[in-house]
Amino acid sequence: MVSSSFAALVTRLRFRHLRLIDLLARGGNLHRVAAEMNMTQPAASKILQDAEILLGVRLFERTPRAMLPTEIGAFVADYAARTLREADSFADGLDNLKAGGFGALAIGAIMATTPGLLPKAIAELKRRRPLMTIQLLAATSDILLDALERNEISMALGRFTDPSNALAFDLEPLAHEELWIFVAAQHPLAHVTSLTLGETAHMPWVLQQKTSPMRQLIDRAFVEAGVGTLNNLVETTSIFATLHLVREAGMIACLPKSILMEGVGRDTFKRLPIELPNQLGPLGIITRRGETPSANVADFIDVLHEIAARERQTLLAGF
Questions:
Q1: Which residues are 138's β-sheet partners?
Q2: What span, in angstroms and rounded, lies between the C-alpha atoms of 3 and 1?
Q3: How confident is the model over 218-231, as a mean pLDDT?
Q4: Residue 256 sits in which domain range?
Q5: What positions does the domain HTH lysR-type occupy (predicted)?
Q6: Tens-digit pLDDT profile for residues 42-71
């Protein structure tokens, strides 16, 4: 049975309410929000008042410097932002469909999928549906999970960062990655045959941010090696920046084998003889828990399965 409060929201809550709440939560200035919405400040104030009356709560605290969201206001603002993003995606997809396309697909992927699985899957999906618009967010798993939770993307290729992720998301494993610690070919360590992780602790490293699964694994390995926290460090989520700093600044880094194979084969980089005591969890397809995927998401998942199966067969044929 639909509650009366829900019926009231559906009947009376408008996109202008949501847009004003979203803008005000991000900016805190009603005058600027009114200007952005092409209306007078009294008109904007009236829309906010209408929303607060409809919801039965105060959404913002009026202070001399800014309007700050209350606890409930922050909750409503988060809903407003998600709803507006979904509406924008819906409008883009509708325009695409009306023009004879196949709508839009917003996906996220960690960098380890860049050299193989992901581009092949996108190319195959575009072959089947050339007019589909594909939006790709390339980031670390923690960022992708946040984006997935906020409905900014429909699915992700990544991994869980914490066991509690299973409460909000489903993960279907596709592959396991081997991590390599490496340097540039001209680095003093490039040709050593025996090396421990602890012996590199005083040297410059380039790694992902602390919240990424790969960084957490490296930090744990240094702790287990009795070293503690790295001090000589650059943090970045960019593969390009990582490879450039390794090559040009003599830094040490850790990346998936799939990214480094070509560079090692060309003698641009050298893998160091260091085996990490632990490896990352499985790389997989992550979706919001219990949510039925759209047709475009389901098609892309099917393509990922096909390509992952082909790559496994190719790997087995090489033995």
A1: 109
A2: 6
A3: 89
A4: 179-271
A5: 13-70
A6: 999 999 999 998 888 899 998 888 889 999
